[in-house]
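> agent: user asked for a holo structure of the chain below bound to nicotinamide-adenine-dinucleotide. Plan: (1) validate sequence alphabet, (2) canonicalize SMILES, (3) run complex prediction with ligand conditioning, (4) return tokens. Step 1... ok. Step 2... ok. Step 3 dispatched.
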Amino acid sequence: MPSSRSPSQFTPQRIAVVGGGGHIGLPLALFLCDFGHDVTIVDTNAQGLENIAAGRMPFHEHGADELLPKCLTSGRFHLTTQLPPLREQDVIIVTIGTPVDEYLDPNVRTFDRVLGGVLSHMRDGQLLVIRSTVFPGVTERLGRQIADRSLNIHVSYCPERIAQGHALTELTKLPQLVSGCTPEATQRAGELFRELGADVIELSTVEAELAKLFTNSFRYINFAVSNQFYMLAGRHNADFDRIYDAITRDYPRMQGFARAGFAGGPCLLKDTMQLASFNHNLLTLGQHAMMINEGLPRFLVDQLKSTRNLQNETVGVLGMAFKGNCDDPRSSLSYKLRKVLTLECRRVLCTDPYISDQEFVSLEECVAQSDVMILGACHSEYRELRTTKPVVDVFGFLSRN
Ligand SMILES: NC(=O)c1ccc[n+]([C@@H]2O[C@H](COP(=O)([O-])OP(=O)(O)OC[C@H]3O[C@@H](n4cnc5c(N)ncnc54)[C@H](O)[C@@H]3O)[C@@H](O)[C@H]2O)c1
């Protein structure tokens, strides 16, 4: 939540968030507005903006349901699908999605196209903050494109590092990595975040771009280490969770050892592939991590097949979101699990308390109708699960409760 501030230190600014209807942009926009800035969300998703204007959060974000109505009545919160209002701003923050394409290469052309539009509505003296995760070198290139247009715009790169769903608490708790193509860009962007109460760490633009990719690739590889050990233990009839507990308990050097589980979601794999692409496709650890993490659903099904005749059975998948207590199905490995199961068993039932999908069933129905279940996401609701039927739990979540 926004921290308390002394009015004398605060300079309200007009800030536009391009992509401000999304998972990164919207919490940031709400936070900035609640802090006292005048905020304009620019987003091409008209339906999403309609929901926001009606006070409905388009996705689950802790604390946002209470904050959104406050912002809507503040007089400092505006929503538009159009770019022209960018000219009236002091600061423009870009939070659009930056996916990789079907060849696992970053889709830089889309970013270029959107930024081309943004620049054509900017004026001298503005600060442009790139908050999306970008391919290294993109920020400096943007700085050169701006110079080519003879514009005096200060370009900064400040990557977002929050855990999705927890932005409102993490925005000021985490240090902000701040970089700029000009000293003034670094200084102004740093000031914006310091004013919010965050610590600021200054880097060069390429260092900040790599810092973000290193963070996500490290986490992705870290999960792969645990997933590889999980599969290894499983093949030798050993219980990974018992080993995990034994080697992490009161042993400081293993505290960074991740739990096994599905490493899905919109960022970790994508950013590991961006880093590989940046390094001329040489990121052996990252590429192996992809094979391991993406292979986990198949491994779980093969293990089940070794002891059961799945062709006659109904298998339930508990949780379709990419992580626990989250309503986001993007790149969730539960969907890959469903696909594998569809080919292997008589029927697949999916359930998720946070995602509405006509094909999903209630938790009660899933438990009643399934012969065996696989945990796909560690939602808190499953802590109360009481069933005598087997549940495959790669996360070790149910036994911890
Ligand atoms: N989701 C996370 O947890 C997370 C964490 C850190 C960093 N990031 C990075 O932040 C960026 C955004 O991710 P996200 O999860 O918020 O994506 P998202 O898809 O939820 O949000 C992107 C928003 O941009 C809008 N948009 C697309 N094209 C546009 C355009 N031309 N003009 C205006 N708006 C446009 C979309 O409608 C959408 O609302 C990505 O680079 C991602 O890697 C995400």
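> agent: step 4 complete. Summary for user: The CA atoms of residues 61 and 229 lie 33 Å apart. The longest strand covers residues 14-18.
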